[in-house]
Amino acid sequence: MSVKHTEEFKQEVVRLALSSRLARRQVAGDLGVGLSTLGKWVSQRRPDDRSKGPDDDLARENERLRRENHVLREEREILKKATVFFASQKP
């Protein structure tokens, strides 16, 4: 079954793919879009449609938040493991 995406969604996905430092594979996976579909959308986009100005700031902020989220998830996993370890120790 194929999913129909709005033009607005496609434009936002392409903008993220072009403006973030993330690999296209990761952008596609994070947004639930096939890698080949993302590639097709990017190739169909005209060069003069590239985002400028405030969108660049949003892309940088999005990238920073993704990195922060990754670090926080790693820290949470470490804390979970530490909790299990210390809970298993008998006084």
Distance between the termini: 57 Å
Number of strands: 0
Helix-strand topology string: HHHH
Taking all residues together, what is the mean pLDDT? 85
Multimer state: single chain
Low-confidence stretches: none
The total count of helices amounts to 4
Helix share bin: over 70%
Task: Tell me the strand percentage band.
Answer: under 5%
Major sheet characteristics: none
Q: Gyration radius, to the nearest Å?
A: 19 Å
How many domains comprise the coordinates?
1
Describe it for me?
The protein has 91 residues and is mainly alpha-helical. It has one domain. Helix content is 73%, strand content 0%. It contains 4 helices and no strands. The N and C termini lie far apart (57 Å). The model has no long low-confidence stretch (mean pLDDT 85).
Can you lay out the helices and strands and say which pair or pack?
Layout: H1 7-19, H2 24-31, H3 35-44, H4 54-88
Helix pairs in contact: 1-2, 2-3
Question: What attributes does this structure have?
Answer:
mainly alpha, 4 helices, elongated, single chain, 91 residues
Q: What's the gist of this structure?
A:
By secondary structure, the chain is mostly helical. It has 4 helices and no strands.
